[in-house]
Design a protein that fits this description.
alpha/beta; Rossmann fold; 12 strands; 22% strand
Length: 279
C-alpha cells in the first residue's frame, strides 16, 4: 500500500517544526498530502468561579485563546511554505485531550509524524508521549529528533532486529518505506559468541525475506554489552546516517504485561535520526 497521507502533530515549538521538515520530505517523495493537527484545551472554570467573571472579561479570555490557536496554525503554514512543498496541505484544530484526540485522528492516516518528546507532555489533561500515541493509535509513528535538518534522502534505512513480535510488527508497518530504499541495514546485537551462533540463521532468513521484496538488505551484527543496546544502535546510526531507523517498542514484563522497552526509551531520548515504531 502506497503512502498517501501524513498526519503531523504540531504545537509550534522547534521539535514539531522538525517533524514538519521531515514530513515535507516524505510528502514530496511519496506524493502524499500533509495534515497538521493541534489539540488544545480551553481553560475550564468551576461554576463558583465563573459566576464572578464578567461576560466581557470571559470574552476577552476566549479571544486570547483563539489568538494563540491561530498563531499556531499560522506557524505551521509558514513552516510548510518555507519548504516550497507543492503537495496538498490541510490543518485540523480540535479541543480536547491530546492523548485521546491525536491517536483517534491518526487512525485515518497512513502514519503519524511527531517531534521528539523530551518529557511527558501533560498540558490539557492526560499525558502525551510516544508510548501513549503508539498504544492508542494503532498506526506507525515516526518520531523526529529536534536537531533534524532537511537534506536529500540517502535512500538508506536501518532496522533493529531481535526476532521479537514487536520488531516484526514495526518491520511490516515500515515495508512501504523500506521497499523504496536502495539499502537496508538489519542490525542484530550480539552479546556473546553463543548468542551469535544461535542467531545467525534467523537473520539470514530475514534477509532472504526482505530480498524477496526487492530490498537490498544487509545483515549487520554488532557486539553489545548488557544495558547498552540503545547506545550501540544509535552509535551505528550516527556513523551511517540512515534516513530512518525502524524498531520495535515493547517487551514483556514478568507477569506478561506489555512494557515500553528500555532500549526504545533510550533511543527516543537520545535519537539522532528519525525513528519509526509501531504497536
Amino acid at each position: 500500500m502506497a503512502i498517501k497521507d501524513l498526519l503531523v502533530a504540531y504545537d509550534g515549538n522547534e521539535n514539531s517544526n522538525a517533524a514538519v521538515r521531515f514530513a515535507v520530505q516524505m510528502g514530496a517523495k511519496y506524493k502524499a498530502s500533509i495534515t497538521g493537527m493541534h489539540v488544545y484545551r480551553l481553560e475550564k472554570y468551576e461554576s463558583h468561579v465563573r459566576r464572578w467573571i464578567p461576560d466581557e472579561v470571559m470574552k476577552n479570555l476566549r479571544d486570547a485563546e483563539a489568538t494563540v490557536e491561530q498563531s499556531i496554525e499560522d506557524a505551521f503554514k509558514a513552516e510548510i511554505k518555507a519548504t516550497k512543498f507543492k503537495g496538498k496541505v490541510s490543518w485540523i484544530a480540535r479541543e480536547g485531550r491530546p492523548d485521546v484526540m491525536l491517536p483517534r485522528y491518526a487512525r485515518y492516516f497512513d502514519m503519524l509524524i511527531a517531534g521528539q518528546f523530551r518529557q511527558v507532555d501533560q498540558t490539557g489533561g492526560g499525558s502525551l508521549s510516544a508510548e501513549e500515541l503508539l498504544l492508542r493509535s494503532g498506526k506507525p509513528i515516526i518520531t523526529v529528533p529536534e536537531s533534524y535538518e532537511s537534506q536529500p534522502f540517502k535512500e538508506q534505512a536501518a532496522v533493529a532486529w531481535d526476532g521479537s513480535r514487536s520488531a516484526a510488527r514495526a518491520l511490516t508497518d515500515a515495508m512501504q518505506i523500506l521497499e523504496t530504499k536502495m539499502r537496508l541495514d538489519v542490525i542484530r546485537l550480539i552479546s556473546s559468541e553463543e548468542d551469535e551462533a544461535k542467531r545467525v540463521l534467523p537473520e539470514h532468513d530475514l534477509i532472504a525475506h526482505l530480498k524477496a521484496h526487492g530490498i537490498n538488505a544487509n545483515l549487520v551484527q554488532l557486539k553489545s554489552g548488557a544495558g547498552a543496546a540503545g547506545k550501540t544502535i544509535l552509535d551505528y546510526c550516527t556513523e551511517t546516517k540512515p534516513d530512518v531507523l525502524v524498531m520495535g517498542a515493547y517487551g514483556r514484563g514478568r507477569f506478561g504485561t506489555l512494557l515500553f522497552g528500555s532500549t526504545a526509551q533510550y533511543v527516543l531520548k537520545n535519537m539522532t535520526v528519525p525513528v519509526l515504531m509501531s504497536h
